[in-house]
Amino acid sequence: MKKTITRRDFLRAATAVPLAGTLVPALKAEEPAASRLPTASAGPAKTRVVLIRDQACLDAQGTPNAEVVQRMLDEAVSRLLDATDPVGGWKTLIKPDDIVGIKTNVWNYIPTTSAVEQGLKRRVMDAGVPADKIGIDDRGVRRNPIFQQATALINARPARAHYWAGMGSLIKNYIMFTPLASDWHGDTCADLAKIWEMPEVKGKTRLNVLVMFTPLFHCSGPHSFSRDYIWPYGGLIVSRDPVAADATGLRILQAKRRQHFGDDRPFNYDPHHIFLAETRHGLGVASEDRIELIKLGWQEGTLI
What we know:
By secondary structure, the protein is α/β, with parallel strands linked by helices. It has one domain (7-297). Helix content is 27%, strand content 17%. The chain contains eight helices and eight strands, in the order αβααβαβαββαββααβ. Strands 1, 2, 3, 4, 5, 6, 7 and 8 form an eight-stranded mixed sheet that branches. Helix 4 links the parallel strand 2 and strand 3 (134-137).
């Protein structure tokens, strides 16, 4: 499928599909009101997404600065939850008796990075969870005892163009919970949001972090990578809603593609799984006019 879904296409489709049920199942009763997703009766309420950037988050070799990354995570979570301090915010997401799996992504060229993983783990521990009740894993989640017993999940992965799905997304990051990933490749991965209904993950996700340090905005084939198609964006996108975070990241990748190629060139395969996550599966919000985007930090070249 070659056609890219534009915002106009999406809004046209959205009018034919009820928006009820867009509440992300991971939200807990004690969450701050500002981070809640709207129900059908919530009228103009919007889903909050925080985009934070820092030019100093990468050194000259492109290695993340752990101290800067921790500060970015802390500021983003505090703003997302309207918390006065990051640890207080995390204590509304995670309880001391939780067993927490941090679902990362280990793709060799652009991984989630240790700086993000350890920054998240540090704050989960600050919320009262002991280290032996926290796991960090990607391809081994189905065999990992922490993930098998998890009561809470943190979802963190890099944004990149993806040959089969259009975009490697937070929604797609849970594909490793399934017995066979290739089962989900049909119709350019249209129904990835259904994975979030699996018992292993349903209702457990407390936070989503889309890593935008050096996003890959174009690929030419399965597993392809070229440094010609990455750039030092230096950002993190943080939200309770994976769909809203992904939709925001996708818009940035699309803007970079327009800037680089000089035209509105479609992805090799349509990233429509992000929009279908709202219109078909009710996982979250993809429509731009239903997202409250808060931009923090370095603003030059934000592209959105």
